[in-house]
Design goal:
single chain, 2 domains
Length: 331
């Protein structure tokens, strides 16, 4: 029987679920400090937890809680794709980047990075979106492709800047979006090629089939006179230094994200104690227990870790610090 892993709700959905508990009560507008979670009388008694992460005749859904050591330098410093790494290096080299792209943001959320021993938070804001003029185009390439013997080949470097820009998008996609070019072949059909400055200087628009050599490849290109448009977005990227060393970054992460679970009802403590005793793993079968619900309720007002760790939390419990994850599965 297949098992489907289920992503648990993030803080935003947890807040929505906790709304009746937060609105109109003494907790509304209260910062995420040590507040008691609802008692067992607020939730029905659950089935006993199971430890297997697989369906059985008695268990077709699981609710999981995991505790792992507090390790911000490994958990918050996440790998970047090569294209993203090039953007990050440019941010440091230029002291910030104003990027205009025909795609989405290459890095879409704040990210922590280690640069030359110090720790930084990379951030971005989106500026305006504008529609620019484009022409419909076709492009193809296959490994070993050559132009017919009686057809001229135009070097990319000999093209006007307006054609170079249009061809660059057709081949490479939006800046910092593609890791590498296809190795066996590629084809782009009826796609908008940008000409924001117009086509007066173009050698390709309306010229019919043209063979263009670029980066060791010969592309079959046709840019028509059919008008289209593209959205061009502007993003401002910057990097803020948050720590000068690994130990300082641990302190920064604790100050920013750590939530104390010192004050909890007994059923919530029993869930955390069971997870500790089982090597950091806890699971409820079919229905979440009162203790699981109490932990989840408490975390609804705690700061989540940043994307893509949203839905995880740093917590302090019984003198130790942990990364806490809520998850689940459905048969």
């Amino acid at each position: 029987m297949a098992v489907e892993r289920v992503a648990m709700p993030t803080r935003r959905s947890l807040l929505a679920a906790a709304g009746p508990l937060l609105v109109g009560g003494c907790l509304a507008g209260t910062p995420a400090t040590d507040q008691p979670a609802p008692s067992s009388s607020e939730s029905p008694s659950p089935p006993s937890p199971t430890t297997a992460h697989s369906p059985t005749p008695e268990c077709t859904r699981g609710y999981t809680l995991s505790l792992s050591p507090f390790a911000p330098t490994e958990q918050l410093i996440l790998p970047l794709r090569p294209a993203q790494s090039r953007l990050v290096e440019r941010i440091f080299a230029e002291g910030g980047v104003r990027l205009q792209t025909y795609g989405q943001a290459p890095i879409r959320s704040e990210r922590y990075v280690n640069h030359e021993g110090a720790y930084y938070r990379d951030e971005f804001t989106q500026g305006g979106v504008e529609e620019v003029s484009a022409r419909r185009a076709n492009l193809s390439w296959s490994d070993g492709q050559e132009a017919p013997a009686d057809e001229p080949v135009v070097a990319y470097a000999a093209l006007p800047a307006v054609d170079q820009s249009a061809l660059s998008l057709l081949v490479h996609g939006p800046e910092y979006s593609r890791e590498e070019l296809p190795r066996e072949g590629m084809s782009v059909r009826d796609s908008p090629a940008p000409y924001p400055e117009g086509t007066d200087e173009s050698m390709l628009v309306g010229a019919g089939r043209t063979w263009v050599s670029w980066e060791g490849r010969v592309y079959d290109v046709t840019v028509t006179t059919d008008e289209s448009s593209l959205s061009r977005r502007t993003f401002e990227y910057s990097a803020t230094r948050v720590a000068d060393s690994a130990s300082a970054f641990r302190a920064f992460a604790a100050e920013t994200y750590l939530t104390s679970l010192a004050i909890l009802p007994s059923e919530a403590r029993s869930v955390l104690d069971a997870a500790k005793a089982a090597g950091g793993q806890y699971e409820d079968c079919d229905e979440p227990s009162a203790g699981y619900r109490a932990v989840k309720w408490r975390l609804a007002v705690a700061p989540e870790l940043p994307t893509p760790r949203d839905g995880d939390w740093y917590v302090a419990y019984d003198g130790e610090r942990y990364r806490l994850e809520l998850g689940g599965w459905v048969a």
